[in-house]
Amino acid sequence: MTPIYVTQPHLPPLEEFIPYLQKIWDSKTLTNCGPMHQEFEQALSEYLGVEHVALFANGTLALVTALQALRITGEVITTPYSFVATAHSLLWNGIKPVFVDINPDTLNLDPRKIEAAITPQTTAIMPVHCYGHPCDVDAIQKIADNYNLRVLYDAAHAFGVRDASGSILRHGDLSVLSFHATKVFQTFEGGAIICPDAKTKQRINHLKNFGFVDEVTVVAPGINGKMSEVNAAFGLLQLKHIDEALARRQEIDRAYRNFLEGVTGIRCLEKRAVERANYAYFPIMVGPGHQIDRDGLYWKLREHGVHARRYFYPLISEFPMYRGLPSAQRANLPVAHEAASQVLCLPIYPALPIEQVEFIASLVRN
Ligand code: T4K
User: Atom 41 of ligand 1 has which residue's CA nearest to it?
Assistant: First the structure.
């Protein structure tokens, strides 16, 4: 039985990649922001409709650097319902995460609960567009403006998502993407910071290259966060195939919703009203009304070769380096705890045949 994983990268035919590699071989420039890197930054900012893109070796380094670029210190309000890299990027900067509960419908940071968590040490809010569903960006910005806080979006899941006025990545001070192999748009490993102005982009460029401005000038204790030429070249190729991949994901999302309609105790997350979604994940909530609980269903699917994933269980606030924080207490995060105990992300990727979607849905149904 060939396993059906939660995701599988969308790979173009290998021969399409050879001319890109040939160019790299000819130029002998392998990294340090060479021609592929520059071309990919330009192509991405055009595709996404954003001002500036700074490429990174992965999303986590991009998050760590984005916090440095904004000079964030003290306490940052964030969500416990995310991949652990969100909060780890704060600890790597010596910043204290303050967990705030999520909204039960969107599973994103609940703006109604943010104000109560603000203290004199709070300097920023770091929400996550979880599963590529946009946060309530207007409500979050209003709070940030009132309290003079910065907003850094962890947009690791939100490639290509657009609201009525354009890319979701335009909101806040900065947004961070991940191009990891498991993402909608991938460069094997990779990430990016989306930023609105050239000055910030320049600071980010320095920070991701050890702080170098020129051969003899170092302005900050920067890191090595650069994306290599091979990853950037692969990104350029992927861009040519991304629209067909997104369209295929939409078909799979639709098929799941049809096959799962009316199943007692199973809730598909409501589609958010956006101009363009990316169908990055297909989370279902396995409620108490279902015949078996979430973990029972997880193992049942595994027995049939279906590797669904419990993103995001356990909550970040449950891991040893966070659970001692006052904001990590269970009583502070009831919605997040309930979501983490019910969620199951079903396989979704462009090459998944609809018959397999039907098969997976039938296992959930019966
Ligand atoms: N912020 C958020 C909100 C994030 O979700 C993430 C990453 C980050 C920040 C940090 O960005 P990066 O630094 O990673 O760029 C995965 C990913 O490693 C991680 O990137 C991702 N979020 C997270 C949600 O999921 P795992 O532990 O689930 O990966 P893994 O190896 O179990 O892969 C899942 C399935 O995908 C496998 O069962 C098979 C398939 N797969 C995986 C890989 C790596 C493939 O078919 N090919 C592959 O190459 O963490």
Answer: 8
Q: Is 59 in the pocket of ligand 1 (CB under 6 A)?
A: yes
Predicted TM-score (pTM) above 0.70: yes
Q: Is 24 left (phi over 0), alpha (psi -120 to 50) or beta?
A: alpha
Residue type present at position 132: G
Please indicate whether residue 175, judged by its CB atom, sits closer than 6 Å to ligand 1: no
Cα 71-48-174 angle, rounded to 5 deg: 10
Strands (E), the chain: 4-5, 52-56, 75-78, 96-99, 122-126, 150-154, 162-163, 166-167, 174-178, 191-195, 212-214, 217-218, 266-268, 282-286, 306-307, 343-346
CATH topology of domain 242-365: Aspartate Aminotransferase, domain 1 (3.90.1150)
Best CATH choice for the domain 14-100+108-239 from the list 3.20.20.70, 3.40.50.300, 1.20.1250.20, 3.40.640.10:
3.40.640.10
44 Cα to the center of ligand 1, angstroms: 21
Distance 60 CA to ligand 1 centre (A): 12
CA 83–ligand 1 middle distance (angstroms): 9
Domain boundaries, the chain: 14-100+108-239, 242-365
Residue pLDDT, tens place only, 82-136: 999 999 999 999 999 999 999 999 999 999 999 999 999 999 999 999 999 999 9
| DSSP sequence for 245-313 | HHHHHHHHHHHHHHHTTT-TTEEEPPPP--SB-----EEEEE-TTSSS-HHHHHHHHHHTTEE-B-TT-
User: Ligand 1 within 6 A of 92 CB?
Assistant: no
Atom of ligand 1 nearest to the CA of 89: 9
d(CA 57, ligand 1 centre) in Å: 14
Amino acid at 329: Q
pLDDT tens string 152-171: 999 999 999 999 989 999 99
